[in-house]
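Problem: given the chain below (192 residues), write out its structure.
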Amino acid sequence: MNENLQFLQAFLKNPLKVGAIAPSSPELAAKMLEGIEPAENNIVIELGVGTGAITKFLRPKIPHRDAYLGIELDRHLVRSLQRNFHDLHFVCGNACDLYSIHQKSGLGKVGYIICCLPFVSLPNDVGEKILRQVDKFMDEGCTFRTFQYAHGYYMPSAIKLREHMRNRYGRSKRSKLVVKNVPPAYTLTWHK
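Solution.
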């Protein structure tokens, strides 16, 4: 199935969990992956993998299957990801359980979290639970990168995410606006 059609179907089925109408562009994927160098004991976790729009650009950077863990809530998308990227680890799970999912995986230390979750449309309590999970990895020296769409950058939930991270890890490194994406977006990076 066409990636754009698959993504649109997932969005229409559950817009609060998908949060976008199109997969991330190659330009946004490139920004999300700048400086990411996974290894077996410096793994990358991708949250909200979706159709694998970022995963397909991340895959060449992954030296070994045990250097990657993708977490996606939609079981239909997980099945598709497992078919398309059979050499990577995917789990159908909730980001609110991120730490325990990683523990159960038996994979190494987490060096990077690439987050594609729609914080702007998530309920506040869900967003807070996810950020508490992220904090557990940040305390161990992890780099956290996410993106926010330009049109939602000043929405209360987007501001809340940035404030949470800034209060704990300092100001983010914000990219220039990636205009070749629907909609345009910024990447935000924090490292403890």
